[in-house]
Every structure is written in structure tokens, then in C-alpha cells.
Amino acid sequence: MNNAAKIGIATVCTALVGVAGFGAYNVYDAMNGDDAKSPKVRTVVAEAPAADLAAAGAKAFLEAWAKGDLEAAGALTDQPDTAIAALRAFQEKVKPSGVTLTPGGTPTASASPSASASASAKAAPSASAPASAPTGTEVPLSFRAKVEFAGTANAWNYEGRLGLVKMSDGKAAVHWTPNVIHPKLDSGESIAVKPVFAEPAMVVDRNGKPLNYPSLTPALMARFKQNAAGAPEDAGTGVVITKDDGSGTADKLFTITDPKPVPSLKLTLDGKLQAEAEKAVAGASKGGTLPASLVAIEPSTGNVLAFANAPAGGQNRAFLAAIAPGSTMKVITAAALLEAGVKPDDVLPCPATLSVAGQTFKNDFPDPHEDWKFSQDLAQSCNTALIKKGLEVLKSGDMEALAKDAFGIGPTWKTGMLLAPAKAPAPTGDNLRAAQLIGQGHITMNALTMASISATVQSGTFRQPILVPGSEQQKADRTLSPATLQGLRAMMNLTATSGTAAGPMSGITAGAGAKTGTAQVDGQADDNSWFTAYRGNLAVAAEVGGGGHGAAAAGPASAMVLKVGNG
């Protein structure tokens, strides 16, 4: 079933008085005993009703609602039309078989609504005067609701709230708001009976061990559980509140019939690697003072084995960041140059500076290196050499097209979680072409994307990252040629053994490749630190906002996880 009660239909108002939030309304004579065909106009006055009048008004309203006389109940409020529409919607969409409403006294500040299932409700106190003076022009009173449903002995019990105001005829009326029906119901929301599913008993890693780590916040775990909803025949029923605009998640107030239990949800994550990723990111981010993230992927499957963020419990930056990757993008630039016929041993001079259409590009080091080969340029992250050669042998958009066709960059990945898709748009003009060849310009990535790039180099095939085993994986249009892969792996290995990544990768270079990155961000004093690498059947990428050079912050964090390995 998919019912939805719409609360908050516009009220017809005949006049307004000087009391904020209240007006004058045509009401039935339910309070006066006159002929119902001659409605009188009552207005809210700027003083609270006496305690006995407030208790009488609450009692009359609750009695009318409970016996299903919704017109009479609505007439006992300060907004009859709105109240009647809302009460009818509750009756139609929740479909209770019986409603018992018992007046109470003044609600306590600590009281909170409850929703417990029981065959019978305890007797609530009878209507009584408030224990203390009301606030403003309303007298607050509580009531106990018992809502029953056909076919089950389960009864929904909760504490409700009413605010009683004084009317111009001297009597009290219920001030109408959506939360008269239930304390959690607000404007722009609906309350209805809908199918509900059981949550998995727990979320576990690929080895069946519970996942309980700071970066895997309750919000992330809740999303995983939502994705594990059972089949329609497994559903139970429950009273839920949803937003009318479809945003957010349903707030379940009460379970009428229990759904079938769901087994534990197994993710692709590995607890051992996740624990190391948490430590690595905490250290790289200086205890969470810098924003940072790290992702580890299994190249042979695309399975995400770990992801961690700083600050822990904050935004899932590993999936949602959309920032320039800096020189880690040179992995794809180098692949494009290799496919264009440039050989790793070709001499590609590395000038100190390079001017492109009036814009000057330079390197992290001041001296020129006219005798460097292509492999050395990549290993030492020479901007000027790769820009110069890229502008010479690549057509505009070639590198970005390769990113899409062979590395899956651009199309939205369905990983099982919210994701900011990586972007490598075709550049316009030589300045932007030059910037994008070194991971600046309009290119945006996150740690998940960069880990996938290294995973693709290691395995030779793009496998879309996933978090739930067996999920559908989007495919790339093609793979890199064997010659391109061989050259790219050799150059990334040189980067790990004697290039800019040598420090972090010390002792773990066998079967490994790496690339550092330093990304400039407008208005930011310190550069962002990037690092991507693979070793065996494990690929990792990390980024630290304001962390400086890639080998300084993101590199050591990535190496910590790579040293654990994927065994």
C-alpha cells in the first residue's frame, strides 16, 4: 500500500486579529448549542483560557475525534477547515479500526512521544487543570492516544500535545497545527500506513565481521541498510511520516505487522584494511584538522575494500569530493601520450617554465632538465614537458576522451552510495588544455576515482567500484593496448622506486606503481596533497586538503594501507 495523508490544506479565513499565528473563523455552534446552520464567527483573543475551560475544550475535542465525528472535532479548533481536512486524511490514510483518546494534564518538558505496541493501554489520568501557569496565550495539555488496527492485537500508544486558546465567545478551542495529530508530524509532511522492511541484523565486511569504524558513520550504515530492503512479499506494515516533496527518509512511528527478518548485509569492505585506512587518514589529516580521504580497491573485482574520511563522521569526502587531482591525473596524460606513439625512452626536455597563450606554467623544482626522458618526466612530475608534448601530439580532448573510454571517467557509477561523478570535460582553448593535462582546469576527482585509475592500470581493465558484492558494474568502452599498459606500468614503477613517490613507497616497490600529485586551489594557502598507487591486487588513493606535496601527506597514508596488502 502507498497511502499518503496530505496535511496543511489552506484555511478559509474571514478576518485577522492582532494575535500572531491566529485568525477569525466561521465555526459551527458545537460550543454554543445553537443551530448548526447558523455559524458564528469566533476569534482568538490575546489571553489564555482559564484552566477549567481549557480542560473542557480539550475533552470535547478528543471525544469528538475518538468517535469519528471529525466535523465536530474540527469545529472545536481555531482552524476548522484545516483541522477537518487533516483529521479526515488521518482516518483515510492510517485507517484505524478504533481510536481511544484520553485527556491528561500539563505535559512535562522531558516528555517525549512513544509508540509502543500492546494489546491494551493503561488508563491515563482524567482531564485536569494545568499544574502551572500557561505560557503566552496557550494552555498546554497532554493526551494519551491508543490507535487500533484490524487484524492485529497490536495497538499504537503515544502521548499527544494540545494547545488551548481562548476564543472571543469566552470558550476554549484547540489551536490547530499538524502535530495535534502526532507530535512528530509537521507542515509539508504526510502520515500514512505503508509497507516497511526489516533492517539487516548488522552490516559486516567481506569476511563476515561487524563493521564499526569512525568513518562508517551511522548515516552511511543506514544507507547500506536501505539498499538491502527485501522483496515486496517480505514487507510488513507500519505508520510512517514522509515529506511531501519526497526528500529524506521515512520516519517509522509504529510497526503494525512485522516484516520478515533480513540477514546481515555483507559489504565488500575488509575490516583489517578499513582499520588501517582509519589510522592512516587520522594521521595524514593531523587528527582531523585537515579534510582528507582514502579509498582502497581490489583491481581484479572493483570491490571497495576500505574508505576513510577526516573528520571522521563528517562528509563522505572519499565519494563526494569534487576537486582537482593535480599531477595524479598525469597517469591518464601519460597513457594518452603512449597511445599517440611517444615511447618511455624518448627524450622530452623539461624546461623550467613554459608559456602557453600568455600563461606561464612551471614545475615544483626550479632547474631545467633538457636531457630527461619521458619516463623521467613522469617519475619526477615535470609539468612543462608533459604540457609541451601533449599540446604537440594530442588533439584537444584526446586525453579526456581516453579518461572516459578506458578508465570509465564521466558516466555516473552506481556504487551503492551517493557519489560525485568525476569530470574530465573537453577543454576550450590552449590554456585550459595545458591545465587539464596536469590535473587542473575543469577536471574534478575524488579518492574513489583516483584509486580506480590505479586499479585499471594494475589489472588492465576498468572495473567500476562497488560496495555490495555482485552489484552491476558499468563497463568502459575499451581497454588500453598491451604496449600502453606495459609502458605505463614501467613508468609508474619508476616513480615508486626513484621518483617523487620513492619515499612513501620504500620497501614496497615490487609489483607496484605510484604517482604523486600537488593541486593548487584558488584562495587556498597550501596545496592539496594527492597520491595514487597499486601493489599486487590492491590499489589505493588518498588526498589531504592543504597537505602540501603528494609525498608529504597523502603518500605515507596510502603506503600504510598498501603495506597491509590484500591477502
Q: Note poorly predicted spans.
A: 1-37, 109-135
Largest sheet: 5 strands, antiparallel
Structural class: alpha+beta
Mind telling me the C-alpha Rg?
A: 33 Å
Could you write a compact summary of the structure shown?
The chain is an alpha+beta fold and 567 residues long.
Give structural notes.
By secondary structure, the chain is an alpha+beta fold. Helix content is 27%, strand content 20%. It has helices at 51-66, 70-75, 80-94, 218-226, 271-284, 317-320, 330-339, 374-379, 383-393, 398-407, 430-437, 447-459, 482-498, 502-505, 554-564, and strands spanning 15-16, 23-27, 40-43, 98-103, 116-118, 139-148, 155-166, 172-174, 189-196, 203-204, 236-243, 251-257, 265-266, 292-297, 304-310, 353-356, 359-362, 512-519, 528-535, 539-544. The strands form six sheets. Strands 4, 5, 6, 7 and 8 form a five-stranded antiparallel beta sheet that branches. Helix 5 runs antiparallel to helix 15, helix 7 packs parallel to helix 9 and helix 7 (330-339) packs across helix 10 (398-407). The two termini are 47 Å apart.
